[in-house]
Amino acid sequence: MSYGSNDGGHGTGVAQVEGDPFADPGLPHHTPRRTDIDARAANRAERQVAALFGLSTILTIAFIVCFVAIDKEESMYVVGLGTVNTLNFALGVTLGGSLLCIGFAAIHWARKLMNAEEIVDYRHPMKSSPEDTAEVLEKFRAGVEDSAIPRRKLIWTSMLGAMALFPIAPVIALRDLGPLPHKKLRGTLWDDPNHRQIVHANDERRLKPSDFALGSMISAKPNDLEGHDELAKASILLVKLNPSEIRSKELADRGYRGILAYSKICPHAGCPLGLYEKNTHHMLCPCHQSTFDLADFGRVVFGPSARNLPNLAITVDDEGYLVAKGGFEEPVGPSFWERGDA
User: Fold this and answer.
1) DSSP 8-state class, residue 9
2) What is the pLDDT of residue 5?
3) Torsion angle in degrees (nearest 10) through CA of 111, 115, 118, 119
């Protein structure tokens, strides 16, 4: 039993047994489309494609208008969907419709106006020869010509308008991410003189040095936080060390009688700290085990953190309550874009 080959390169590629009475019929004869032989039909198809591109442009503009004009809290009833958010529904319809019109226009353009000749292309080695490369370039140039772009100015112009305007929609949507942080990442509420009083994190009572025993630790925060959403960055830990165990006079002067204040936020990934080893004065992060020496300016002694734990300078006011002298000297928390060495 043996197998025959394709007939002159025009068969379907199906192997045939010798003597098989069912011959390979090959490709059917090419039948021209109406737009190939009727100029009026071709012009009508061109207008249809341009109309779809134009409708895409209108829907993109409608997306932008809806994004700006519709209230985010507004809702509406849609048959089959029930009550939905009006803004989400409008954005979905306009943006989806814009994409759909571009797709329909491209398909209609290809089916009605581009070259419709059937071509058989056999497999070839993966590495192209110079002749094949030249042939591909020639086919590309022929494809540009077959697409009718040079001759169909209306399609070309309307397509450019739709494709150029469409990217504006997702750019406008970036506005919904919220305002830029600007300098907010570099400061905390401790920078504000109205928020320098140190209060207990749980009951918000003001703290005095007498509230601390040697080796104790208390979570604290600034006073008057009602209406503020920056508690996480401003949270601190107060620990009392033996003044003789503090490694430098500079650090001792930033505390009060052995009481030191540090940010509660790990500089590595922003996890809250709280695992304090009294004997070693080490603060351990529960997430990735970064360890900081509180007796030595919060120096990193182990783990992935690239920066020391920020220290907050404190003192007491005229009534004997603990207060912050000012804000942190460096940004608290994990790294952010353009932080640099600050």
Assistant:
1) T
2) 41
3) -130
